[in-house]
Amino acid sequence: MRFILRSIASGLSLFVADYLLSGVTFTGGIVTFVVGGLTLGALLTVLRPLLKILAFPFNILTLGLFNIVIVMVLVWLLSQIVNKITVENLWSLLITSLIVSFFDTLLTLKS
Fold it and tell me: DSSP secondary structure string, the chain?
C-alpha cells in the first residue's frame, strides 16, 4: 500500500514540476506520468534508503541537506531510465527534487 501511495505522490509531483518548470518536459501524455510515478516510487522505495546509509557522514556534516542531493540523483536517474522525461538543467533538477521531497514529506506526515 505504501508503494502505491508513494507512486501516486511521485506522479503528482512530476506533474506539478512539469506544469511549473520550463526545464522539465514530458512527452507521451498521461502514460508518461504513470510510468514516471511508478519508476520514481520504486527508486525512492528501494534506492533512497541505501543511498542514505552510504551518505550518512555527508548528511551529518550538512545537517540533512544532502538528502536533496540524493533525491536529485534519483530524479536524474529517472530521466535516464524513462526516455520521455527530460530535465534540461541543474536548476530544474534542483527544483524538481524539492517538489518531489515536498510531496514525499506530505505523504510521510499523513501516514
Answer: -HHHHHHHHHHHHHHHHHHH-SSEEE-STHHHHHHHHHHHHHHHHHHHHHHHHHTHHHHHHTTTTHHHHHHHHHHHHHHHHSTTEEE-SHHHHHHHHHHHHHHHHHHHHH-
Q: How many Å apart are CA 65 and CA 22, to the nearest integer? A: 25
What tens digit of pLDDT does each residue of 27-43 get? 888 999 999 999 999 99
pTM: 0.92
pLDDT bracket for residue 111 (50, 70, 90): low
Q: In whole angstroms, what is the distance from residue 69 CA to residue 51 CA?
A: 10
Q: What is the total residue count of the chain?
A: 111
C-alpha 55: how far from chain center: 17
d(CA 72, CA 110): 23
